[in-house]
Queue: 2 jobs
Job 1
Amino acid sequence: MKLKHIISARQFDRKILEKIFALTNQIKAGKYKNDALYGKIMATLFYEPSTRTRFSFESAMQRLGGRVISTENAGEFSSAAKGETLEDTIRVVNSYCDVIVLRHPKTGASEIASQYSQVPIINAGDGEGEHPTQAILDIYTIFSKFNKKTFTVAMVGDLKYGRTVHSLSCLLALYPNVKIVFISPKALSLPKSVLDHLRKKHVDFVGTEDFRSYLSVVDILYQTRIQKERFGDIREYRKYYGKFIIDKKVLSFLKKTAVIMHPLPRVNEITPEVDLDPRAIYFEQAQNGIFSRMALLLLLFDKAKL
Amino acid sequence: MKLKHIISARQFDRKILEKIFALTNQIKAGKYKNDALYGKIMATLFYEPSTRTRFSFESAMQRLGGRVISTENAGEFSSAAKGETLEDTIRVVNSYCDVIVLRHPKTGASEIASQYSQVPIINAGDGEGEHPTQAILDIYTIFSKFNKKTFTVAMVGDLKYGRTVHSLSCLLALYPNVKIVFISPKALSLPKSVLDHLRKKHVDFVGTEDFRSYLSVVDILYQTRIQKERFGDIREYRKYYGKFIIDKKVLSFLKKTAVIMHPLPRVNEITPEVDLDPRAIYFEQAQNGIFSRMALLLLLFDKAKL
Amino acid sequence: MKLKHIISARQFDRKILEKIFALTNQIKAGKYKNDALYGKIMATLFYEPSTRTRFSFESAMQRLGGRVISTENAGEFSSAAKGETLEDTIRVVNSYCDVIVLRHPKTGASEIASQYSQVPIINAGDGEGEHPTQAILDIYTIFSKFNKKTFTVAMVGDLKYGRTVHSLSCLLALYPNVKIVFISPKALSLPKSVLDHLRKKHVDFVGTEDFRSYLSVVDILYQTRIQKERFGDIREYRKYYGKFIIDKKVLSFLKKTAVIMHPLPRVNEITPEVDLDPRAIYFEQAQNGIFSRMALLLLLFDKAKL
């Protein structure tokens, strides 16, 4: 099994996900050769700075023996600065490396890049589009906690612009016994394209503004940041701000077996007191990003023993 | 044969160029040990961001097993920020690494750096001065297409500020059967110092504003970007803008055996339709940058088997 | 002997310093295995750009076979940009690497980071606080010149904000036969917390504004930059500016056996003519930074053979 590019969560099926999970488990258990990608070079081409995501990819590559060329200022030398198109940039950079990790402010940028690149493109976030490797680490984290694949996920916060939510929803849609509750202000509810996809896949989901009512039934509480700047009317923002905060009181409503996840960074939407609760697994989730990205790299380079 | 520093195209003669070409050919054919520079460290010290050039050097170094310490914000910690001289910066950084790749806005900066450095300095562009490693990859690309070394090169666009043109002209001047046509607006014609050098070397060249007339006789059409901002009078710019565009129509005038080159990035001076023509070799040219820079690094570290 | 974190110069005693010196000497003599840290990853997390210090750490790590993930723009993705706390950043980044080198504008930041990190934190400068690895390289340089540990050090310039002076003073305080002369304008004299520490340790020191009088008795003249911007009144600045310059005339007052040090970068407080004097050892001092940081890394990873 070989992946060519990683552009969208929609390109994955259950079979390949199961292989990724198995491989990630092996890596997490220390069963991998740490020079599998010796001699390979990753270019991290970030048009928006995101040290967190970049570090995660670069660490994964180097833990496999690969090497890295890196920029978090790609915007300064390309179209923005001298008028070069993304297509040209990709056609040059792809001759300097063996895989390109692309973060770009425009939705669809990775799809375009993949049409021009002779090496694999990994979408590390394209505008309000997708963030498929985040979704892979998220669903891996979920299944590492819930073996039977029958559970209810609540996704909370900014579901409109949150590309991690878009990507994760598409992966969850592959599993028939998963129920999803989308909790957000109406102004920040899921975009139509994702809704249409979930309906087409017959996903059992509901959208609501009511945070409290579902707390006692969810198995996974997936929190995201509500971005103040998205609201035209600050009073509208204040109506929701505070309703969606996960604090000690919210913990008291949650199942003992539930888990709390967050793609991070968080600001105030999960209070620090929650960190100490064993149900808070967002830092473990971040750590899984290394292991699952190592698995994806091994698959892209056809180095996975599965 | 050992190079000490790479500062100017003028330091090369035909004998060393032939060795570089032979070595680059070997590398391109995969015949090199990819840990020849194991344990060596390259510092890329860029006072102007140029991800493209930086990536090319860092990839070349790492493909040879070397390692990299890197900055594209050198200006922020040196003279500009705290008042340190380039001399001092070099005397400190040269104790952290085994080779320094320097990009600097001031003409002559690499020459100065080489006087203070105990490790090799590679000039990766100094203001309006030179860009010798670009010239090496350019002339390697030309000779990989034209074996007999008898041909006509047209260099088009901004010949005044274009340091790649200055450096490439000096290398071409080493070959007696090469003719050069310099095509540019008068305001952007070759600087006197380069003209004098070519005359001293008895190069057969002509300068003109007439783009069309020479199209049918040139073997290499070397296009560069005309920079709008160089013109005081925008009407002057508009007079030339459009005259020097390589498009499908221009292709129809070119020899079947001609090639089109460009140091990149390009903006609009070569239209995208040209990319599909087999005579368009600018992306192959960019790729040759890796191989020829690997060759130069092997020579600097006296690791070339020639 | 294993270090856990490197936060403050005050955490070191003479016994561990002696081991660091011995190890640094071994490394300087080329007696180390250059893959001792193979498979380990260093994250350099710089909230203020400092290419010099970052390069020094990254070179040290790579000379030991380790790898690096690096940012000099950490401020752009953390609290400053999206409102994330340093605590959260550390808890995420520590799962991507094996050691974190932190440069932060806030005094005490490394101490806080060490409380949340599961991997070692190295303080690479925290505001006006400390810069312990600079102090280690400084004192190593001093003892490499003065074997008997009985000498007089003059520290000159901005002693108030200069964190290298604070850290070095604390290390010198461990040696009973060291005398210190603090020479600065009153407005830039040593902060009370450092003074109190020196008094508690019974250090033989004096503070003065008189530069000339002590020149003939000092063994080490440790110069630092006087920062114009610290003075409210420019006339106050001009009173001292010029008094503390080390130039050819100052050289004539110094002992033949004295040495001149500077943490660098320097601006005008040491004139270039001084560089040629054999007593000027500031570039050798900078070079020692690589060796002593390699020693510290080996100790942190428990890889030192002592």
Job 2
Amino acid sequence: MNKYMKIANEQALKGINNQEGGPFGAIIIDQNDKIVGIGNNQVLKEKDPTLHAEIVAIKNACKTLDTHDLSGCTIYTSCEPCPMCLSAIIWANIKTAYYGCTKKDAADIGFRDDDIYEFIKGQNQMINLKQLDREECLDVMKKYKGKMY
Amino acid sequence: MNKYMKIANEQALKGINNQEGGPFGAIIIDQNDKIVGIGNNQVLKEKDPTLHAEIVAIKNACKTLDTHDLSGCTIYTSCEPCPMCLSAIIWANIKTAYYGCTKKDAADIGFRDDDIYEFIKGQNQMINLKQLDREECLDVMKKYKGKMY
């Protein structure tokens, strides 16, 4: 077994045993193969639906490296990232992600990852999304143009 | 202008003025129209790529209500949620979301929201996603089955 995936998987097991959240773990290494962030799902423990394993690992890596930019890093996660975590990986500028279980495996134990992928692809209607007041919001957005991160 | 969207938009402006991150704000109300969470993008301020306005608002609402489950709540956000935030809204069990600007508007000022949507739909290759060690990871996942959150 890949040594980093093994650690991610051990994090998943730890999360189950401690009843911190779902069975998911992740680890991030930098370009020198040094571990910079590690995490497991802590949704129940922290009462925070955003604290999936990958998000926790990204937060920890950002603290370790003192930056929001994880360019050059690689993430290993015990399950295929949900769209939230996949997007977080992209926003963190991580370019390579390895995963163990699939979103179908996650669906088999009751998680909605696959449904969310289908919603984003327009194949179901999980929530209502409505637009309003674009003009006023665009006025504020335009004040920002040119600045990037 | 809708009174909640007005507050979300004011949060976006505050974020620009304080150089905390991108021009995005959000607010969450409960089923009695009481404000339970508010937020703006704090990616730069907190050096955390996951702290988009909607995520900050969700975290604050979860603290206010002391739960990871925001069923019955509604979110207003000054820009169409990126896939990370849209998924976080779903994981939080929020069923209705109002947004001001569009993902195309965000692209016009340099943000990659729309690219990430296209990646998830299989229309580009922003990062490398590879599977490994499914069998060992599935062994851990199976220990969890039946527990839900």
